[in-house]
Fold these 2 entries.
Entry 1:
Amino acid sequence: MAAETDELAKELSEVKLEGTRAVLVDTVDGVKTMLKQLENTREVAMDLEGVDLCRSGELCILQLSDGKTTWLVDVEALGESAFGEGGLREFIQDPSVILVGFDGRADADALYHLHSTKVLGFYDVQIASCIRQDKEEGRRDRFVHGLGRATARFLRSDPDRASALERTKQDGLALFAPERGGSYAVWKERPMPKALFDYAAADVSLLLDMKREWEKFSPVKENVARSTVRINKAVMASVPAKGKQMAMKDF
């Protein structure tokens, strides 16, 4: 399996990820090595993929990126050992590390209830995207922005990159989105289909850049405070963080 995953990583399109490299981490030693490489990094992009991702679902892949390397931690293969022996729990709960993501509510719900891991210090690019619109364009929506909308806005001056990223996303969606004939269960398949590998890596490829561009509208301290309220509300709720109500602006 290691040879297959190494080859998969080599095949990842550099165009899609703008020159960053992606690595699949499917051993406890691999998780430790990743965290060693990140030990002096105070800002890391994070996302999760899985089946019905929330407390009632399954976490299969956890992505971390420092902007140069993207690691896809195979939680489906490693289970609790990734968080305990591997050290992921300690890293995610380190208050000195800013985790940069897009709408961390469902991800935090899954991490807390499935893996006893509390998300701290989360900078939410979704909040920044909405506040940017409020301040720069002078209009407010009742609903939050999806990642696709925020990405399109961020890449509006780079149509080639936007087009390449959209193709990557569509290829992945075709495999797991039920409305397109896919199944979320595909995230459990090993070896992982290359389209899913690309999709997961692409999901975090812009988060750090978006945060740095938009934090002038949503400063870190203010954003993290708002995000903490959102996440705590979602995690402590009596129901999973999913459903149409998640589209309503709550900040």
Entry 2:
Amino acid sequence: MLTGQFTLPIGIDLTATFIFGLTGGLAALKRGYDLIGLFAMVFVTAVGGGLIRDGLFIQQGPPAVTTHPGYIQVVLLACLGSIFFRGHVIRFNKLIAWLDALGVGAYAVVGVQKSLNAGLTEGSAILVGVINAVGGGLLRDVLVRDEPLLFKPGQFYVLAAFLGCLLFAALAVQLKMEATKAAGISIATTFIIRVLSIRFNWKSSSVWQERPAIPSPKPNEPTATEKKHDQ
């Protein structure tokens, strides 16, 4: 059992939803989608992680996005923002990335807490927390038939969310720290890791990279060793 409960301020929640939605809206505009396609992309990217969490793993009543009118309003606002302020949105990509980093940490912690309260084990709760944080981007990539970004080497994103989930579970469950304090530390840690990876371009690497094949010498062409002896 958790000591106390962390409540994500609705302002931060809706701001993160808006930022996530903008990324989906820009992806839709780049592909020339119509209004329906734009709304679908914004909606899935903005609240997809929560839908997966509530609909697939927790299954305790209607998803949170359907019980508060603010989410749909923010999704519609993100659609309008994508259309009318596209140039400004692209100009403030770095600021959006920083706000996105805050949202990733917050949603990671919320996902873990909701899962633990629903009776999931710590390992499962960490998994759901990561999905809650990055699930919207995953669904966005799948819908547009792109290879999901989280599968490819790149700046620390999923890793930052995973470390935040792991830290929250360790502090709140193992060390019995009060949930709000544990959440604050975990969100801050996730944010710092994500921002530093953006600032210094920290990237993950491929698990396996095949070495390029060495071409065989053409007939009557000296090998590299023979060329070295000839010099």
